[in-house]
Design goal:
The chain is of the alpha+beta class. It has 3 domains: 1-92, Phosphorylase Kinase, domain 1; 93-282, Orthogonal Bundle (Transferase(Phosphotransferase), domain 1), CATH 1.10.510.10; 336-362 and 381-449, no CATH class. Helix content is 32%, strand content 17%. It has 10 helices and 13 strands. The chain has helices at residues 52-67, 98-101, 109-128, 182-185, 193-208, 218-227, 242-251, 263-275, 336-368, 385-401; strands spanning 9-10, 13-21, 26-32, 37-43, 76-82, 85-91, 131-132, 141-143, 149-151, 158-159, 416-421, 427-437, 440-449. α3 (109-128) packs antiparallel against α8 and α7 (242-251) packs antiparallel against α8. The chain is rod-shaped.
Length: 450
């Protein structure tokens, strides 16, 4: 749309350029010729001159702004008409608006704290004058050339205590849907806490560079303010401290009774949340964590007196004894060489005994045969008593000399006669007596003479 005011003069103000355009007015940067200073001129467009509603709101802003004298409220210098077109002359804010700052992204926490600390007293001041702003948002917070914040645009403000219908601004739900409190969106009676909600929405936007509720239509956004819980600011900006998030969410409570009671209280809580986050209490009680255990140095620990517990019933649970590995008993085995040596000694002893017995028998037989007689064998094969005794003693000696081992098992004794020819026709019988030592067969003999 072509702007035909630039380059022209309205009253004593030369229009230099357009600052911004809103729903009901356009703001220009102008030069006040008489004072030689820059000013802002707010002009009602010509298409709204014949609209009674817009004319009443424009005039009402002038009346309310004239009552508010605060260092953080943009002052009004002049008001007039030019060729039937009304205008308001205000202080020129060279720093632009907070909305302009958000084009570069979220603001720093120190910037948010400073802006809130400057706007909050102005808002409380207006509430003290029974004035509700009803359209608080980042585009209505202006900055001067050194960065100080100012509150502006009381075009739809309402004065508390006025009779309903006395002004056009008191009828219906009025305001910007993205910043409306739930009660404002529903057209309910309002108090100062509706501006606290709008300030909370503005803080949310400063911290995240987006509004808590966004939709396709203004009506849909207004419904979300009434029915939908606000999202977490940290969802969009993780660098926001939890304590700051808690302050913002408290300002956005659906119930006005749960919000901060004043803008100054909100600003103080925000500053505390940024400067000393550990001092900010959580909005909802959470289960408390157990206190940390203090570990004292060993030298500083007091030595407690011994406490002997009273005897108690033994526990039903039995603790199994510690298992001790059983030592595997190694079977006793005779060394093969030792067994061979013992066998050799016994064999030599046995051979000596046999030879001795043989000589004894031969000698006896020779003495009984007369000269010139031929010795003959007798039919009696019964061993003599002397031979039997000698054999028994020899067998007993052999058996007692044989070492017994734990693993030796003797087989059944069998007497196997072995016929051998002795000297002088004497018949000698050996009774074979096999035994087993460590699994190896060993032959023993019982000796009988005939």
């Amino acid at each position: 749309m072509t702007d035909d005011l630039i380059g022209k003069q309205i009253g004593g103000y030369a229009i230099l350029g357009l600052i911004g355009r809103g729903g009901m007015a356009a703001v220009y940067r102008a030069h006040q010729v008489s004072m030689n200073r820059s000013v802002a001129v707010k002009v009602l467009p010509r298409q709204f001159i014949d609209d009674l509603t817009y004319m009443q709101r424009f005039n009402r802003e002038v009346q309310i702004a004239a009552q508010l004298e605060h260092r953080s409220i943009v002052p009004v210098h002049d008001y007039g008409e030019s060729d039937g077109q009304p205008y308001i002359v205000m202080r020129y804010m060279a720093g632009g608006s907070v909305d302009d700052m958000l084009n570069a992204g979220p603001l720093r926490l120190d910037q948010i704290v400073q802006i809130c600390a400057q706007i909050a007293p102005a808002l409380d001041y207006a509430h003290g004058k029974s004035v509700l702003h009803r359209d608080l948002k980042p585009s209505n917070i202006l900055l001067d050339d050194i960065g100080d914040a100012y509150l502006t645009d009381f075009g739809i403000a309402r004065i508390l205590g006025e009779a309903p219908g006395s002004t056009i601004t008191t009828d219906g739900a009025v305001g910007t849907p993205s910043y409306m409190s739930p009660e404002q969106a529903q057209g309910h009676p309002l108090d100062h806490r509706t501006d606290i909600y709008a300030l909370g929405v503005s803080l949310f936007e400063m911290a995240t560079a987006r509004r808590p509720f966004e939709g396709d239509t203004p009506y849909g956004v207004a419904v979300m303010h009434v029915t939908t819980p606000p999202p977490s600011p940290r969802l969009y900006n993780e660098s926001i401290p939890v304590s700051v998030e808690q302050v913002i969410l408290k300002a956005l409570n659906k119930r006005r009774e749960d919000r901060y009671d004043s803008a100054a209280a909100l600003a103080a809580a925000l500053r505390t949340a940024v400067e000393a986050p550990q001092a900010s209490p959580p909005p909802d009680p959470q289960p408390s964590a157990p206190p940390p255990i203090e570990i004292q140095p060993l030298a500083e620990r007091p030595i407690p007196a011994p406490v002997y517990p009273a005897p108690s019933a033994p526990s039903l649970r039995q603790v199994p004894p510690a298992s001790v590995p059983k030592r595997k008993r190694r079977p006793f085995r005779l060394n093969l060489w030792v067994g061979a040596m013992i066998g050799g000694v016994l064999g030599c002893a046995l051979l000596t005994v046999v030879v001795g017995i043989g000589l004894l028998i031969v000698g006896t037989s020779t003495s009984e045969v007369g000269p010139g007689e031929t010795p003959t064998a007798t039919a009696d094969v019964t061993p003599s008593a002397h031979a039997r005794a000698l054999v028994n003693e020899t067998a007993a000696a052999v058996e007692s000399a044989t070492p017994r081992t734990p693993t030796r098992r003797a087989t059944a004794i069998t007497n196997t006669p072995v016929e051998r020819s002795g000297p002088s026709g004497t018949v000698i019988f050996f009774a074979q007596r096999p035994i087993t030592v460590d699994g190896a067969p060993v032959e023993a003999y019982n000796l009988y003479s005939l």
